[in-house]
Amino acid sequence: MAISDIEVFAHLTDTDIENLATELDAIRHDIEDSRGERDSRYIRRTIVFQRTLEVAGRVLLAASKRRSAWWAGAATLGVAKIVENMEIGHNVMHGQWDWMNDPEIHSSTWEWDMTGSSKHWRYTHNFVHHKYANILGMDDDVGYGLLRVTRDQPWKRFNIFNLVYNTLLALLFEWGVGLQHVEIGKIVKRRMDNEEARQRAEEFLTKAGRQVFKDYVAFPALTWLSPGATYMSTLKANAVANVIRNLWSNAVIFCGHFPDGAEKFTKTDMIGETKGHWYLRQMLGSANFNAGPVMRFMSGNLCHQIEHHLYPDLPSNRLAEISVRVREVCDKYDLPYTTGPFLLQYAKTWRTIAKLSLPDKYLRDTADNAPETRSERIYAELEPGMLGTDPATGRRRGLRTAIATVRGWRRSKRTPSSGASVRVPGRHAA
């Protein structure tokens, strides 16, 4: 099962969790107090860069009689769409730049370059996903109502096509995001008021229609003004650019939510949830990936997904410095800080999706001890005195130590040395 008691799972007392909230609040206050000209300059320059990049892509496509120019134009346009969606649209609509009081760069006015309506996304993502992050039955982003990403989701026959669905979702990610708020499943099952269903569908179709017209009618039509391109060449280039953006966005988002270590929770965790509990759930339910300056920028700084979930409305350009302090907090309380190479993290999400396309009877691990799904029950075999304070070093021994210990004895159990019995410290003798 998913985590039902986050305090027990994290090996923290109520006082620990209260102190954790105080320390994380202090980080927020420090960043809020230091926001200023360098931050506003960053987002304004990013917008100028993105628009320049898009114009450059369009110009290259106008000269796309040469195949090399066509590919250069499509790729440049794809990168421009990535920057607009990831580093600008996503972050502006989170309210990260509302403090500037600029009506053009404000969460309530920004409409991004994709089929999904900003209004819909602000509800499904800003409110539902970030408030109920990784809570089964509350957060629709856990599998998007299509994928089985945890053993806590009962296996159904259509899950056998998990890999096919994920491939289609990656290629058409903007459509998945756009349709998420429409909630077609609820409409089909008549679990939504007819008027609300009609309004959601109309709003989606209006935005998607404008986007389709722009990408596949208006811009291709403009190529008639250029002798170096045709309607179809530009249409195909726009389609390729959208796929480039979709694949990249899907990969970045999945790396932040579905690799090993991104925990899932039950609704019981919401009962009496304090700010400290909320912080803890965001830290344990998210994952980062390693990135340099270019990778950070191209991911919308979502390589710092943990920090983003802790502070979704703080400027994205500050997440790298925030991450240093968050890691220190994790070290202090012996909490895991899930991160790794980008390709490895993404591969883990595909591995999980592939494994969970099968019924549970074909899976070796359970919902309590699988790499992608853990619960407090995983620690039943740990010796009672193993946690607490290490008498040799004086350091706290908590969740991170427990996970490492359990992993150690599981590896020993699966690959024992020839004939020799292996005992890992912290595990009860068999």
UniProtKB/TrEMBL annotation:
PANTHER family referenced in this protein's UniProt entry, alphabetically: DELTA(5) FATTY ACID DESATURASE C-RELATED, FATTY ACID DESATURASE 2
Location of region: Disordered: 408-430
Coiled-coil parts of chain: none
Fatty acid desaturase domain boundaries: 69-339
Molecular function via GO: oxidoreductase activity, acting on paired donors, with oxidation of a pair of donors resulting in the reduction of molecular oxygen to two molecules of water
InterPro entries recorded: FA_desaturase_dom, Fatty_acid_desaturase
Species of the source: Mycobacterium celatum
GO biological process: lipid biosynthetic process
Superkingdom to which the source organism belongs: Bacteria
Protein name: Stearoyl-CoA 9-desaturase
